[in-house]
């Protein structure tokens, strides 16, 4: 929980709406430790909440509409709770309207909401999932709906699909809605069952921003999903979760489908192995899994970029086996996640000469 952010959000609420908020919902962003591009293949993932996130201050209002102020942008929106109208542009307003639309509120619901976030946008830490779930949690608290993590996560995922045109999986939304600070969330994206794992106390998880903001990637993302689905169809399984390497080899996949599917099958296996490495407190096993995961995203799934690969190599050189890194999130820029001996972080920051932000 980010105390400064919450306080600022409460102050902004008073400044904008001229009265005090009745409550504030905070939802973090997430970093994914391992299990990339497998959620929409019904796979297993291992994300973790970060410190930064989105706060939404709320109070019921008698004007009969949903009034939202985005404090970071100095922009507002106001719309009907029941079947809000569509916007031509996909910006934060589409996310707000989409989320409210998916919560099925009664006509005439009136709420004042003030949103403030401290997640860098485009850095691969799920700012949009954090925004949607925080908004949903604020609405739920204001109206006494008591919506659980799965309901909020599904509404947020549908918002990405129907209001933003991104055919994402459910990892980000579940990670931010159900994840507990300082713990890795092992999530089965088919059943939505999950378990939380504390990391060994001498391990650190940290984020290094590549400085390249993700942009124009939705097309590439949706294309990867289509390639995986095409491969699953040719293999004759409902999703790549049900495939193994022998099945890939005997199916008539083209080169691209084979590479994409091989990444998915092996990445799901890596998530299971990473969970075992955490339980055994085996950092060198964890480091090998991260390295393999990065190479697979670079060579088989082809979602990394040279700036991120260089950062990965530099971290590898500095850590000298005391941990490892890999790109995290959808790819095409964004951040690198590092898992290393806690004692190795100060040197890493000095030698890289850029911020290394601990996750917990
Ligand atoms: C984005 C999507 C997720 C997931 C990751 C890649 O963050 O929103 O659903 O597919 O990319 O693992």
TrEMBL record:
NCBIfam families: gal_kin. Residues 12-60 form the Galactokinase N-terminal domain. GO terms for biological process: galactose metabolic process. One of its GO terms (cellular component) is cytosol. GO terms for molecular function: ATP binding; galactokinase activity; metal ion binding. Residues 97-179 form the GHMP kinase N-terminal domain. This is Galactokinase. It comes from the Bacteria. SUPFAM superfamilies: GHMP Kinase, C-terminal domain, Ribosomal protein S5 domain 2-like. Pfam families: GalKase_gal_bdg (PF10509), GHMP_kinases_C (PF08544), GHMP_kinases_N (PF00288). The lineage of its organism: Bacteria, Pseudomonadati, Pseudomonadota, Alphaproteobacteria, Sphingomonadales. Its EC number is 2.7.1.6. Belongs to the GHMP kinase family. GalK subfamily. The gene is galK. Residues 277-352 form the GHMP kinase C-terminal domain. Keywords: ATP-binding, Carbohydrate metabolism, Cytoplasm, Galactose metabolism, Kinase, Magnesium, Metal-binding, Nucleotide-binding, Transferase.
């Amino acid at each position: 929980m980010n105390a400064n952010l919450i306080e600022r959000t409460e102050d902004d609420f008073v400044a904008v709406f001229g009265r005090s908020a009745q409550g504030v919902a905070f939802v973090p962003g997430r970093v994914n430790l391992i299990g990339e591009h497998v959620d929409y293949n019904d796979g297993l993932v291992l994300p973790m909440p970060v410190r930064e996130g989105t706060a939404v201050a709320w109070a019921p209002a008698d004007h009969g509409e949903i009034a939202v102020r985005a404090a970071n942008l100095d922009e507002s929106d106001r719309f009907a709770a029941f079947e809000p109208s569509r916007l031509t542009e996909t910006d934060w307003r589409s996310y707000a309207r989409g989320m409210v639309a998916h919560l099925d509120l009664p006509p005439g619901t009136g709420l004042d909401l003030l949103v403030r976030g401290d997640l860098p946008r485009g850095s691969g830490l799920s700012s949009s999932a954090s925004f949607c779930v925080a908004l949903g949690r604020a609405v739920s608290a204001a109206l006494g709906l008591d919506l659980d993590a799965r309901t909020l996560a599904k509404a947020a995922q549908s918002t990405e699909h129907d209001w933003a045109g991104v055919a994402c999986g459910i990892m980000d939304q579940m990670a931010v809605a159900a994840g507990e600070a300082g713990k890795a969330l092992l999530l089965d994206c088919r059943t939505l069952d999950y378990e939380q794992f504390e990391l060994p106390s001498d391990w650190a998880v940290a984020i290094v921003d590549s400085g390249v903001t993700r942009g124009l990637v939705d097309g590439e993302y949706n294309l990867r999903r289509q390639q995986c689905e095409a491969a699953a169809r040719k293999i004759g399984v409902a999703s790549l979760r049900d495939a193994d390497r022998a099945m890939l080899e005997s199916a008539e996949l083209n080169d691209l489908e084979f590479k994409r599917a091989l990444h998915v099958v092996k990445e799901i296996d890596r998530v299971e192995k990473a969970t075992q490495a955490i339980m055994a407190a085996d950092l060198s096993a964890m480091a090998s899994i991260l390295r393999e995961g990065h190479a697979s995203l670079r060579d088989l799934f082809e979602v990394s970029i040279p700036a991120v690969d260089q950062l990965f190599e530099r971290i590898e050189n500095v850590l000298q086996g005391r941990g490892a890194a890999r790109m995290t999130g959808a790819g095409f820029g964004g951040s690198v996640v590092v898992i290393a001996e806690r004692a190795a972080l100060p040197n890493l920051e000095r030698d890289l000469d850029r911020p290394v932000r601990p996750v917990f």
